[in-house]
Specification:
Two copies of one chain form a homodimer.
Chain A lengths: L2 H12 L8 E2 L2 H7 L3 E5 L9 H10 L3 H6 L1 E4 L3 H13 L3 E6 L4 H9 L3 E5 L6 H8 L6 E2 L6 H20 L5 E6 L4 H13 L4 E7 L4 H8 L25 H8 L4 E3 L1 H15 L9 H8 L8 E6 L6 H11 L4
Parallel strand pairs in A: 2-10, 3-4, 3-6, 4-5, 7-8, 7-10, 8-9
Antiparallel strand pairs in A: 1-2
Chain lengths: 327, 327
Amino acid sequence: MSNFEMIQAAAKRLDGKAVKTPLLSSPFIDDIAGRPVFVKAECLQHTGSFKFRGAWSAISALSTADRNRGIIAFSSGNHAQGVALAAQKHGVPSVIIMPSDAPIVKIENTKALGAEVVLYDRATEDRDSVAARINKDRGLTLVKPFDNAYVIAGQGTCGLEIAQQAADVGVTDADVLVCCGGGGLTSGIALALEQTAPDFTVRPCEPVGFDDVTRSLVSGKIESNKQLTGSLCDAIITPSPGEMTFPILKRLCGGGITLTDDECLHAMALAFDRLKIVIEPGGAVGLAAALFHGDALNSETTIAVTTGGNVDAAVFKMALDKFGSKN
Amino acid sequence: MSNFEMIQAAAKRLDGKAVKTPLLSSPFIDDIAGRPVFVKAECLQHTGSFKFRGAWSAISALSTADRNRGIIAFSSGNHAQGVALAAQKHGVPSVIIMPSDAPIVKIENTKALGAEVVLYDRATEDRDSVAARINKDRGLTLVKPFDNAYVIAGQGTCGLEIAQQAADVGVTDADVLVCCGGGGLTSGIALALEQTAPDFTVRPCEPVGFDDVTRSLVSGKIESNKQLTGSLCDAIITPSPGEMTFPILKRLCGGGITLTDDECLHAMALAFDRLKIVIEPGGAVGLAAALFHGDALNSETTIAVTTGGNVDAAVFKMALDKFGSKN
């Protein structure tokens, strides 16, 4: 199967299982951006992020024997919850390896979704060794967060929906702004749009200082981030683009755009006020680019994918305090 | 045309113009409610409430001559913004009469959506006289918030979507919990479901102490609220059910359910945490009933309509502070 056929097959497996997230808009957002902006509200996906799509795609493609043995994944965040719920709904056992210093609420959520959570100490243990020890006799299938063809195909189903929804509102020319970590969602959307909306340009969006994809696209080879902590956009910070995702990004994407934490908080407050959706800082970079970096965009219309909404109340209140409208 | 044919006709006029709002769910919400809960996220509608549907329906049904003269409406809140945007998109002039003590941000929003805003002093002026003075030579068409057949038909399109989306997820038996003020949305949904999902029961939900509809359904005649202020759920407080809406509610709805402000704030915090949507207190009564009043429900499944999201940051933060999960 071609990449595109894999996305179409994933869409069939996801039909009725994933949320067909809406394409939202507001004249107030358009006014700030200076052009029409549509928001693909993927924060409304099950478990609050697009990760459920890729997880469902990967698990639903397993053989019966592999399903019976179960799956394993590493994650401190959105991938953990997406995998746990997709596994639970398939009746497939799941083991999620999480750092012991992950927020307790995320650990509890992952357990509540039926996963066996194994904690490891980031300072003294190597997570691959932890996984190898657990998996010695169990034959669990590893579900990687982005460098997995089924995961990329699952994320690509978001791109199929964007193409259809954009056509429904008459959009024929757009920059599609995608919050980008390892590049699973960005590459999946780019592959879907290559066939369904070839005039659209996918633009990866990243936090300032964690712009591995942007720099990789400039240099033409995989670049890494110098640090992995220190941004509010923790959900989309990865060491570097993936071995599978980067060639796709390189072939299909326009240049990256980088955003400050404050721009993301501002976008979160505007999304609260004008779109009535909850987005996390890492899920706001695309919308922030649409709002505040119009000079970097080339198309008449902008489509921003708000990729996740798993934000602590404290951070959300910070966004409202700094950038919310006053009454 | 029958009521149902009017809803079908409104759906055609609204196609591609209103948001087909998603039906959301979360295993965490189901767990608290003790049964499956689906949330019709109507807070994601244009201008942040269902009011846009009725406004679009009414304005799109006007003759060319009436459109050219324009429309007039009274509202301090969601109806104002829904009417203003629907009029603007039709190129129809709109006059919105608002109390001079309405929040400045709501007045500014309504103006920004192209309406001519006329303020009146609630203490010293009668709004009908104000309207009559303005409308003396202009022949504007009054768009009432609920006692208007086209408005009810427009709100009913939300019910058509609920029936289709419930069928898509295999729901055949449900209590449909609707936040109820004058009864436009509740009666519209009830008329739509009467034909498309006759086994569903629509249940009006109201704030404790402002339960005019609940009491009217018990007594069989229109009852009024003793007071009109003093609830966080201001968006859904009206003196009494409408002359047009009440007979429909009486014929088709199950008993009303009443909710406290704290139950609504709790539902808002859970919607933030688990569904990633922003709802206002008055838009949360239906979800609060699903979460905390399961003993009043008779069906296997609950569908709660979250009708609006136009909430001040201060009230939203209060909900998170009182009922948000701690990290």
